Amino acid sequence: MKVFRNNLISFLLGGGLCLTACFCIGFNDADKANEEQPVVSAFTVSPEIPKHIRFCGENLDLKRYNMREGFDRELSSLTYFHSSTMLLIKRANRYFPIIEPILKKNGIPEDFKYMAVIESSLDTRATSPSRAAGIWQLLEGTAKQYGLTVTETVDERRHVEKSTQAACEYLLDGYKRYKNWTTVAASYNAGMGRISGELSKQYVDDSMDLWLVEETTRYVFRIVALKQIFEHPYKYGFVLHAEDLYKPIETEEVVVSSDIPDLAAFAKEKEITFADLKRLNTWLTDRSLETKGKTFSIQIPKAEELFYNKPNHYVHDKRWVVD
Prior knowledge:
This protein is mainly alpha-helical. The chain is built from twelve helices and four strands, in the order ααββααααααααβααβ. The chain has a two-stranded antiparallel sheet with strand order 1-2. A two-stranded antiparallel sheet has the order 3-4. Strand 1 and strand 2 (58-61) form a beta hairpin. Helix 3 crosses helix 10 (214-231) and helix 7 (160-178) crosses helix 8. The longest helix has 24 residues, at 2-25. The two termini are 23 Å apart. 28% of the residues are buried.
């Protein structure tokens, strides 16, 4: 009955819009209006573009044609890529509580959390064609440069806390060079060498004024467009309730400094499945763990945390939900 009522309301609204359109066109064009009235139950509306948007405390002027059109492209794409964008908000409820304090501790603007979303869709298992990995999509060389362990059995690029710390250190190095967070964001995609070289060759000071490959040109716009949706989800058609969001999973920490030859046996000993061990510790990349003289912390989920026996009530950002 509820579905029928919703369908009826949608039909009436759609009919009302069509009728309004007919009056606006005028009686002389009634035949044409009848020919062109919608044959679908939904309308695709171009999202409103603000005159400017803030990113990391810096003002991006969207009145200039390339700025407006670049932002419009990404906002339209994310708005109408419904299922994927909705899932990003759901996942953020689990990962933003981890990422934000690390950004704050390092003096990195909170807006960079949206860069992690764009990089990996908040998927710790994400791997790019260039073999970048983890939430922050770090290359192996960069990861090792910033202190992460990458071996046959360990890949800390997939460790949320440690990879976030490494990303922060990279961003801080970028800010020391550019003194501009937007340019730092562009350099995360293209590399500092490429951005510095192009700034010099094109005689400009801001990466938003550069002619770059399409991927990098779109990159910052995609981040700020995602920020716009995350801060105003209902405005862009995303209607979520607290129980729709993915809850953070509470774990207990097990510190290990010796090798674990069989992680499946280790998981069974801890009364969880090997699959759950891997999901909560995606940095464990093999069936065994070789510590190589290092100490690692393994997260063991609490049994009651593995089920949605009760509705999720944790909402990291109240703007994401309608209740």
